[in-house]
């Protein structure tokens, strides 16, 4: 049988002053980024954007039926996907409080198609 000695309130849970200080990770990341830029002149994001722009520009010079067009388009899109998280902020979920009356109208049925 295991017995607990001491004050039960001190076991587990949130403790004042525990853990990493707020912003500590961000400060370290900023230091690394600054050192990288000072030595290399270009960030990884710069390289991604250059590659995306180059592929897009080469693609514009080709006819869409050219097989290379599709390859360049794929490369440009892949580079855009890689760059997006660095350029566009993540959407945050929010809770909206609605005051006043809200009227919801439900329309059922399938509309007729006219040609």
Question: Can you walk through the features of this model?
Answer:
This protein has 115 residues and is an all-alpha fold. It has a domain at 34-87. Helix content is 48%, strand content 0%. The protein is built from 3 helices and no strands. The radius of gyration is 28 Å and the shape is flat. It starts with 23 loop residues before the first helix and ends in a 28-residue tail after the last helix. The mean pLDDT is 79. Residues 1-26 are annotated as: Disordered.
- Overall pLDDT: 79
Q: Name the overall outline.
A: flat
Topology order in helix (H) and strand (E) letters: HHH
> What is the overall number of helices?
3
Low-confidence segments:
none
Give the number of DSSP strands: 0
Q: Summarize the biggest pleated sheet.
A: none
Radius of gyration: 28 Å
* Termini separation: 81 Å
User: DSSP strand (E) fraction?
Assistant: under 5%
Helix content: 40-55%
Give the helix/strand class. mainly alpha
Region (Disordered): 1-26
Biased composition (Polar residues): 1-10
List keywords for this structure.
single chain; 115 residues; mainly alpha; 3 helices; 48% helix; flat
């Amino acid at each position: 049988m295991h017995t607990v000695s001491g004050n039960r309130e001190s076991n587990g849970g949130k403790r004042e002053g525990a853990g990493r200080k707020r912003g500590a990770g961000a400060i370290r990341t900023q230091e690394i980024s600054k050192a990288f830029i000072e030595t290399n002149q270009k960030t990884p994001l710069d390289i991604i954007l250059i590659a995306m722009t180059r592929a897009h520009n080469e693609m514009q010079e080709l006819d869409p039926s050219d097989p290379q067009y599709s390859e360049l388009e794929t490369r440009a899109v892949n580079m855009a996907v890689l760059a997006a998280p660095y350029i566009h902020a993540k959407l945050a979920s929010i809770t909206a409080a609605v005051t006043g009356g809200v009227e919801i109208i439900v329309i059922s049925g399938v509309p007729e198609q006219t040609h």
